Amino acid sequence: xxxxxxxxxxxxxxxxxxxxxxxxxxxxNYLIKGLRESGHVVDHAPDGVEGLEMxxxxxxxxxxxxxxxxxxxxxxxxKRMREDGNETPVLFLSALGAVDDRVKGLKxxxxxxxxxxxxxxxxxxxxxxxxxxxxxxxxxxxxQVGNLELDLLSxxxxxxxxxxxxxxxxxxxxxxxxxxxxxVVTRTMLLENVWDYHFDxxxxxxxxxxxxxxxxxxxxxxxxxxxxxxxxxxxLRAAA
Amino acid sequence: MRLLKLLRTTAFRLALVYVLVxxxxxxxxxxxxxxxxxxxxxxxxDETLNAEITGLEEQYRQRGLPGLRQIIIERSSRSESSxxxxxxxxxxxxxxxxxxxxxxxEREPNGYMNFTYDRQVADGxxxxxxxxxxxxxxxxxxxxxxxxxxxxxxxxxxxxDALLWAGALTLALGLLGGFVxxxxxxxxxxxxxxxxxxxxxxDLSRRVELTGIGDEFDELASNLNDMLDQISRLMAxxxxxxxxxxxDLRTPLNRLRSRLEVTLMKPQGDQEYREALEQAISDADGxxxxxxxxxxxxxxxSGVLRENFAPTDLSAIVxxxxxxxxxVAEAKNIAxxxxxxxxxxxxxxxxxxxxxxxxxxxxxxxxTPSGGAVSVWVQREAGTATLKVRDNxxxxxxxxxxxxxxxxxxxxxxxxxxxxxxGLSLVAAVAQLHExxxxxxxxxxxxxxxxxxxxxx
Lengths: 240, 457
What we know:
The structure holds two protein chains of two kinds. Chain A is of the alpha/beta class. Chain A has eight helices and 13 strands.
């Protein structure tokens, strides 16, 4: 069986309204172009004060905020937004990549943190994941994608009624993929959310784990669920 | 110019203040001595006067005016410092060694008076100071009993002069002392300044000379020297890092650039462009990853990450990292074994230790041929815990073991394996950060990598 490869397109989400607060024009332009070409609506603020005004004036699905901004820095901007009761998911962009910088960003009210330089695919996947996470979901005990089912209480998986034997970590991996079904999930997102590691393990260990999981859930089925998204990561989805 | 500089020095100002304080207190002491001496001498004069008056009064009571006259004549001829004058109603002299009744007397309310009189000396007449009391006797006679105080004043003047000289000498010696001390201090500070200037001009090998006295200046100089040593070491490290960065980032940057350039040389199909761009992105990712590793190693070596230290269970790290890498080994058909027992706690940074162990495992898997074996375990020894990764691959020749810990060093044999050459450097940096040690040993065949960390106290 050869792994399925799909090219990067907008996930099956509806169009998002995204606020980009970034002072470097070239960076901002690439970001806006990328987001628009992925089918999203983008507003841009070149500094913290304007960013805060725009966040107050309109409702966004997500905000992408640079940490170093003129007039009002990113951390303060997000703190003010949260004080206003604004719960828009925020992704911080920063050239500061140390662990405590990350922690500071999340403490100030950020929902995710991405260090420059980053891959656009990584950014897009993370923003989409943030928006999805914010949509209220009832407490689920079962997840389903196509004919793949995951029972969160008994911690068992079934594909087309056949039990799938999973190791504990494989179960967590599959759970994360199913919760983000239809979305692109990057290797770093998996490493952070399934393994809780915030570093680059050099060799692409995640690929090996994915191919193991793929062998367990897709092997012997005509219609694969776990897809590789070139240059970005993975996506679990049933055929339309 | 030098004098001006001297006057501006702290040492000189301190010496000056010291001299002033010393002079004022010496002055007060001297003044006190002067005042008490002179008032004692004045009191003694008055006492002598009173004794004399009591004597004369006695004579007068017993023998009357003629007796008084008689005794005054006697005493006048006997003494030079005692003065007598007996006068009648119009103050003309009857007897005594004063020729006329003093006219310009300065009278005190207690009956004493101070005046000048003329005394016959060898070479003429001398004006002299005296102190006296006067009485009016029945029958309109006047009596004056006094003493010459010129000698007493002389003693007073002598004391005053001596005291002034002493004061002036104190001031002069103090100034001289301050000058000498300040010159001495200045020359030693100047030595430090001279060395600093040499260093600023680029000669970082210069050091401040010690006098060997072991005083504060020596301490300052030796602290400065230690600081300079530290800076030199750091600079040497930086130079090495930048050399290595230049060396190892240049090659992939050049590859990236050539790839893009060659692609643009003649028109190509969409597919070719796409492939070239994807390759370029992959090159850039490689660069970013190398760059991040370098930054992390630098941060670990600088020690700032110690702030994040917390108790960390090494057994859990062995379990987690083994679980992460086990499929990688399996995919390469390598038997992977992880042994983890009860918690072994050390103080450190979980993320960095995990990363270091990950690199050790990654290395072992990478260099062990298919069909080989890799095992991972944590071992407790006195006061330390050691993370061990053993493989049965080709190992590292003993001569190369120290070298592979340096940044970017990759042995010829591994040129074709992917990797940045920073893996073991990071492990070594993590060991250094935790005050531990990375050791590479022969497993015969294969390699044992040991990361020794101090246990949590």
